[in-house]
């Protein structure tokens, strides 16, 4: 599933389009246009425009159109990006590696006949015009300890849910959050606002390490915990039984025996 590491790769791939002029916009799936956008509006904004820049905030990919508005691309759980026929990710964890024409949800065709394509079997992503960037929190890849502390302050809900709240920290998904909490020996179900200063420092250092290591390995699905994300699996660190439960509406895998303070 595309988390910040995957969308970072999409950003690098999409950067190939900077300076290209959009000759045609195809929106074959009206459902994929979000927050009031429709085919006519997207075509009016993008057709004839030149890509001035490509940016990313968390899991949101931003295509800045020169002297026009910005297009925001979200990839949901199974969205992949193709530019010039090259895939940003060959295969997503829990997604399909197949490339079916009916799964193409959005296309930009350029003057030189090259294309940028969003491919999404489950249709959980979307495209919008001028997304409200202020709704997103600090980007996880550049998150400071002070920003992490501020995002957790006062939180009575589960720690995992707070870390995945995109309005507070942009980019953390299910796999990266479970990996970070497991490595930091913190319970995903503990209240976010109850972490001590020492625990916040440890969590921040661990998140930085996870994002760096998994980025080098190839994506959010390459964590040390990944093979234990099945029922009845043993903890890769201590051998105890992993616990699977729903936290913040997401399937969560963690080891109660590894949490600091556990007997």
TrEMBL record:
<keyword id="KW-0227">DNA damage</keyword>
<keyword id="KW-0238">DNA-binding</keyword>
<dbReference type="InterPro" id="IPR035937">
    <property type="entry name" value="FPG_N"/>
</dbReference>
<dbReference type="Pfam" id="PF06831">
    <property type="entry name" value="H2TH"/>
</dbReference>
<dbReference type="InterPro" id="IPR010979">
    <property type="entry name" value="Ribosomal_uS13-like_H2TH"/>
</dbReference>
<keyword id="KW-0511">Multifunctional enzyme</keyword>
<feature type="domain" description="Formamidopyrimidine-DNA glycosylase catalytic">
    <location>
        <begin position="2"/>
        <end position="125"/>
    </location>
</feature>
<keyword id="KW-0862">Zinc</keyword>
<protein>
    <submittedName>
        <fullName>Unannotated protein</fullName>
    </submittedName>
</protein>
<dbReference type="Pfam" id="PF06827">
    <property type="entry name" value="zf-FPG_IleRS"/>
</dbReference>
<dbReference type="Pfam" id="PF01149">
    <property type="entry name" value="Fapy_DNA_glyco"/>
</dbReference>
<keyword id="KW-0234">DNA repair</keyword>
<dbReference type="GO" id="GO:0003684">
    <property type="term" value="F:damaged DNA binding"/>
</dbReference>
<keyword id="KW-0863">Zinc-finger</keyword>
<comment type="similarity">
    <text>Belongs to the FPG family.</text>
</comment>
<dbReference type="InterPro" id="IPR012319">
    <property type="entry name" value="FPG_cat"/>
</dbReference>
<keyword id="KW-0456">Lyase</keyword>
<dbReference type="GO" id="GO:0016829">
    <property type="term" value="F:lyase activity"/>
</dbReference>
<dbReference type="InterPro" id="IPR010663">
    <property type="entry name" value="Znf_FPG/IleRS"/>
</dbReference>
<keyword id="KW-0479">Metal-binding</keyword>
<dbReference type="GO" id="GO:0003906">
    <property type="term" value="F:DNA-(apurinic or apyrimidinic site) endonuclease activity"/>
</dbReference>
<keyword id="KW-0326">Glycosidase</keyword>
<dbReference type="InterPro" id="IPR015886">
    <property type="entry name" value="H2TH_FPG"/>
</dbReference>
<feature type="domain" description="FPG-type">
    <location>
        <begin position="226"/>
        <end position="260"/>
    </location>
</feature>
<dbReference type="InterPro" id="IPR000214">
    <property type="entry name" value="Znf_DNA_glyclase/AP_lyase"/>
</dbReference>
<dbReference type="GO" id="GO:0006284">
    <property type="term" value="P:base-excision repair"/>
</dbReference>
<dbReference type="GO" id="GO:0034039">
    <property type="term" value="F:8-oxo-7,8-dihydroguanine DNA N-glycosylase activity"/>
</dbReference>
<dbReference type="GO" id="GO:0008270">
    <property type="term" value="F:zinc ion binding"/>
</dbReference>
<keyword id="KW-0378">Hydrolase</keyword>
